Structure formats: C-alpha cells, structure tokens
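Researcher: Please predict.
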Amino acid sequence: MRWSRVRAVAKKEMLELRRDPVLLRVIVVLPVAMLLLFGYAVNFNLKHIPLAVWDRAHDRISRALVRELEKDGKFDVVYRATGEAELKRLIDRQEARVGLELPPKMLEELRAGRGVRLRALVDGSDPTFAFQVQVGLQKAAGRLNARLIAARMLAGEAQPLPLTLETELLYNPGGDTAAFMVPGIVGIVITQIAVILTGLAIVREKETRMLEALIATPVRPGELVSGKVLPYLAIAFADTLLVLWVGHTVFAVPMRGNPALLLLLVFLFVLGSLAVGIVVSTRSRTQIQAVFATLIYYLPSIFLSGLFFPIEGMPRALQLFTYLIPLRYFLDAARGIMLRGAGLDTLYVPFAALALFTGLVLLLATLSFRKRLL
C-alpha cells in the first residue's frame, strides 16, 4: 500500500465534499442540532403543568395550598372549576393535565383536630408524567403540612397529618407504558416509511437516469407523483394496522374511541408525510442529500413531539417550537382517541392543524415537482 495514493483518493473525496455545499452545511449543523435537542429536550423536571382547581373551601388553607403549588413553577393554575365533571372535561380536552378537588370547610376541619383529604385527578396516559405530577403534588402538600404541624406544636397541641392526598390516574390507571407508546410507534413508522422512503424515490431515479425515460413518456407530473406515492401509502397503512393489532392483542392497548376517526387521522398524517418526502426528493440532487434532509425533519419530530420526552419539561422556546411539529398533533389525537375515547368535538385542534399541514405541504410538493430533469 502506497500512502501517496491513499492521500490522493482522500483529497479527491474532500474536494467532492467541498463541491457539495448542501451536504457540507448539514454535516456541520446536524451534530450541533442533535446536541441542542438532547441538552434541552431531554428533561424530566417538568414545569408549568396546567392545573385546574375545584376549590370548595375558599378559605386561607385552600389559598395557601394553591400558593404552594405555584411556588416553584411546577404547576400553573389555569382554571377554577366548579365541579368534578368540569375537572374531567378540562383534562379530556387537555386544557388541564391535572385536576385538584379541595373539600369544603378545610380550616374548620383542621381547627377541630381532623385531617383533610385532598383528591387529585391526573392524566395518567404517560406514566413518567403521572409520576412527576404525583411527586410535585406531594411536595407542595408536604410543605404546607410542615407549616401547619409546626404551628400546632407551638400551640402545644398534637394533631394527625393535616393534609393527605388521594390520587386517581385517568385513562391509564395501571401505568402501562405500552398503552402510551403504541400510538407513538405508529407515528414513527409512518414518518420513516412516508418521509424517508419517498424522499429517496425521485432522487434515486435522477441518479440512475430513469427520470429521463419518464420525461419522454406522456405521463403527467400529477400522475407520476401519484403513482410513486400510492405504494408507500399502502405500505404505511398496512404497517399502521399491523402495529395497532399487535399492540391491542399482545399488550392490551385499549381502543376506547372511534376506529374510523383514527384511520382518518392516519390518512391525514400519511398524506402530509408523503408530501414532505416528495419535497425532499425534488430539492435534493443526491441520495445522501435526501437522507440528511429527512434526518433534519425526523430528529425534531422524535425529540420535540412528546413521543419520549414530556413537552412540559422543555424550555419555553422549545415548547413554542413544538407547535410546528406535525407528529405532536398526531400523537395528541391518536392518544386521545385510543386512551381517552375522545371524539372530533374534543380533538378538533390537532385535526385542523394536521389538515392545514397536509394541505400546505401538498401545495409545496406540487409546486416543487416539475416534469423535467432538475
């Protein structure tokens, strides 16, 4: 082996990389983006969890407890409910993730030397989130308990634990991780098949000169695009049904909502993801560029959609950015249908967001694709 020849080949490869400015930028940007995503998104210390409170006491004890809950930024009281039904409705609509019922006459009960039982309704679809919420609630109640016990001891009076917390997990009372993850796996499968495989389709034909042969045929651009995406649409639907069937039969993942509504959701998400793949393939000159472009779309979808890491643990700037991630809306709606039995009256926001995303990306894909050699 002659190292002069090795150096010559290596120099040639570096020159090729320098002549590909798109790939060179991605090589530099992608590691930094992954570091930022891991550094900021992977955070299980949740903050600003929306909390609805049904305060039946309206005394200084209930007000002190609310202040303790908001003290460290763990919870944000976003609603003052007027009944248990409203608490559950707010959690069903995801306008609140936790509902807290404060019983009447809390101050009178404590003065009489009796303990007070608090009741919390927690969205238990995500076991990690539910655990963090329970820890936060217990911590706030514990701080107030310590103050109340110290005050009674100074007065020379003994008292049982003033406040006790009873937690009820909604939608996933057993804390089953599979019930939370199966809708996410469906989203991953759709993204991988629809975006990555479709993103390589047209680029591959550019490199093999097959696109030239298609240009010489009477096939129109819309017909060409439709013919290319139909197989991937069928594959994505088949894999989605397979994952749902395995999740239901093997892991007992519930299907509490309307299956037809779930299929409509899948269709919207698949169609939008296929359009993303088309845009990537028409804007890329090589398959390597297409692969890196799909990674730029894929990685934020994984980290910022709430698939693995709770959105409530992210910085405010990233939380706002998650509203641009289509997978977030798919997961919100899929988990709502499967775990909460929610309908379109509750899930109209994620459905409308996905419909808007699909329409815009389809328009962009149509404008990007031309029946000519790019």
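Model: The chain has two domains: 49-170, 176-368.
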